[in-house]
Design brief:
By secondary structure, this protein is α/β, with parallel strands linked by helices. Helix content is 47%, strand content 12%. It has a single domain, classed as TIM Barrel. A 5-stranded parallel sheet has the order 6-9-10-11-12. Strands 2-3-4 form a 3-stranded antiparallel sheet, with no helix packed on it. The radius of gyration is 20 Å and the shape is globular.
């Protein structure tokens, strides 16, 4: 939409735009077809998806995904990777026990220095910057929030699944901490080598660290091992002039102060059904901006358009206008077109 980039820029810099920006990932056939003006077909997926974004929303984050045919691929290590229309799921890696996991990770950790800057890393960075530039070109007026590297806790536990990770953390805690440190050094080194003309005002640092019931791990453990590393990474991105939008599902209230102390500038996706309370967040940290906040588990797929409008108006009021309104993760195919239109119209009609 016209002035989307200026609108988002004003919000993230502490100003007040003309209205709340719309922020989302569009993975909904009906919405994409409505705003692109054409039917999705196997031949026109890229054109249709990218054409829909600018008329529909103001800002988005990685990944702008294209619909794909369902199927299963066998990876070289024997794991299955299952492709659905809008999602990809990969089987967890299985180790016989915590000792075997530790031995494998020690071999990884004994490899290259994660802080070393090599020609291959420089080439990878240049390719990444090219992809960001291409994403911006295809999105046009949409404010694109590219991904940023972080401590990568989610990648560590996501490789083997939470149950196996829990055993490894209990039996071999040192290796988990060393993996976090490796990821942290890698992220800082990457940030320090970003080109001076990167042009990125806001980046997306995703690391799911909470359940619906609360933090994934003990807050005491996270305060000792996770948040100091997150703070170091965020300081490196801030050193490049890049603000950080931190993403984690779940209930973050018990560790919200820790996230803010680590330096985050914004928070996403504000999973309201997990207990995330927009007004409480804003009162505690009025400088923090939010992105998301409209429940996509129950309200958007099953509520009425008027219920959606009411939720949008309440979210903007509760945030004191410090919010980019959108679904509490991504706009999936379960959401009726009428409900997304209600969300969008409520945002467009609202004035501070």
């Amino acid at each position: 939409m016209q002035d989307s980039i200026k609108r988002v820029s004003a919000l993230i810099s502490g100003g007040q735009p003309d209205r709340a920006p719309l922020f989302d990932l569009l993975r909904n056939d009906a919405v994409l077809e409505y705003f692109s003006g054409q039917r999705l077909t196997p031949e026109n997926t890229r054109e249709t998806v990218y054409r829909a974004y600018a008329p529909a929303i103001d800002a988005t984050r990685p990944l702008v995904r294209l619909p794909a045919s369902a199927g299963t691929t066998l990876l070289p290590d024997g794991r299955r990777q299952v492709q659905q229309r809008w999602t990809v799921w990969t089987e967890h890696r299985v180790y016989p026990d915590a000792a075997a996991y530790t031995a494998a990770k020690r071999r990884e950790l004994d490899g290259a220095d994660p802080a070393a800057w090599t020609p291959s890393r420089q080439q990878a960075l240049e390719q990444a910057m090219g992809r960001i530039a291409e994403e911006r070109r295809q999105l046009g007026e949409v404010f694109f929030v590219p991904g940023l590297a972080g401590p990568g806790l989610m990648g560590i536990y996501g490789e083997i699944g939470l149950e196996a990770f829990s055993y490894c953390l209990a039996d071999e805690p040192e290796v988990v901490v060393e993996l976090l440190e490796r990821n942290t050094l890698h992220a800082i080194s990457l940030a320090e080598h970003y080109p001076a003309d990167h042009g990125i005002a806001l980046g997306f640092l995703g690391d799911d660290i909470a359940f619906k019931s609360g933090p994934l791990l003990s807050p005491a453990w996270m305060r000792q091992h996770y948040f100091p590393r997150l703070a170091r990474v965020i300081a490196a991105w801030h050193g490049q002039g890049i603000k950080v939008l931190f993403h984690s599902d779940g209930n973050l209230h018990p560790i919200l102060d820790d996230l803010v102390d680590a330096g985050i500038d914004g928070l996403n996706p504000i999973e309201v059904l997990a207990g995330m309370d927009i007004v409480a967040i804003h009162r505690r940290h009025p400088q923090l901006f939010m992105a998301g906040g409209i429940d996509v588990s129950q309200l958007l797929p099953f509520g009425s358009p008027q219920e959606v409008r009411d939720a949008v108006k309440k979210a903007i009021d509760d945030a004191g206008g410090r919010i980019m309104v959108g679904s509490s993760t991504e706009l999936n195919d379960e959401v009726p077109l009428a409900n997304f239109l209600a969300l969008r119209e409520a945002v467009l009609d609202y004035r501070y």
